[in-house]
């Protein structure tokens, strides 16, 4: 069901609300479950634009293979236009250009310790004091020392810093100046510290123009501090994309326990913080009734960089997402994914060029869609690098699906966390191997398993179970790892 010109559809379009169209390989009835009881289905073959080279191959028995769907999602958007922001406003964004030093760091020779700046070997005559923020224009003559604080600029002529605990001040009767001596208990040389000791030389950390952080680096608190220390007041960043979220379903409740055939909305509370963890700022989060015109107006009126819908992606009597996208002349890039749970998910490009991700209504199925399509797409829009694949060994057998990838909630452990597992070798444990233990409650409509999970294990399709010891890819779901 790719994008088709209005002229090609003019003869078949009738006024009134769009109705769901059943595919020949799908079942229409809804499936019961928490949040949105829409059944997962095997989407039928979409009508495609003839000769379109960019369209992924269609797989009639379950949708696009899971790895291919993620690659399509990664390439479905473009990095947003960079902007320049004051330092504090850039937190959480991604550098669009390398961070370079505006000056040397440190900008002058500084003391790394509280103590005395000394010139030459001791003992030394003592005179004056230098604090951080002060600068002495007078050179320090050989045989002289001055008290100095950490971070203060060294006076010209200073050769080293004697730490406070390594020196002793002697006041001699009748002499106007005191003498500084080395305490032998704290020194390897009674003549004093070696040249350069406890001095941070100018440019030790960087020189003006040095690249400090590469483009694509996520701006965190330490990056802000480094930029400030290096003399920067602003940063050029890729702004985080904004997403409108439309939660579909007449059966959803906003408060209280499920009742009268209706269930609580689980995805409205779940999606915004998860999107933020992916670098996406939720804009409007709206509950929509199961009505094609309402959905069409919401999608058509959105100005967000990304639209995420939940529910309505199957082929039931009120599953309107695909018909509405067709009516809006959207191009379907992913029309179903060979993954369990979550295979009715979809990815479309609106005529404006903005992407829309349609997630299934069942909660765990929606999370799988989020990890499959939204995560790689969001990283592209925000200019974030795609993470390197991570792997773990299964601590238990997992049943594989014959044709579809399975995403299974797992907890992660090291070898010593698994006292009931005796056939893993200590050698594997010593290498820091992570072990993934499947969790219960992994059905499409369930959130109990993933609420306790550290990651989702990616179990490839096959005729046999994925056995213990098998290495599988894992998708971390902790906020800091997304």
UniProtKB/TrEMBL annotation:
UniProt key word Glycosyltransferase: no
Biased composition (Pro residues): 43-59
Catalytic activity: adenylyl-molybdopterin + molybdate = Mo-molybdopterin + AMP + H(+)
Enzyme class: transferase
UniProtKB keywords: Magnesium, Metal-binding, Molybdenum, Molybdenum cofactor biosynthesis, Transferase
Function: Catalyzes the insertion of molybdate into adenylated molybdopterin with the concomitant release of AMP.
Family from the record: Belongs to the MoeA family.
Designated name of the protein: Molybdopterin molybdenumtransferase
Protein's organism: Streptantibioticus parmotrematis
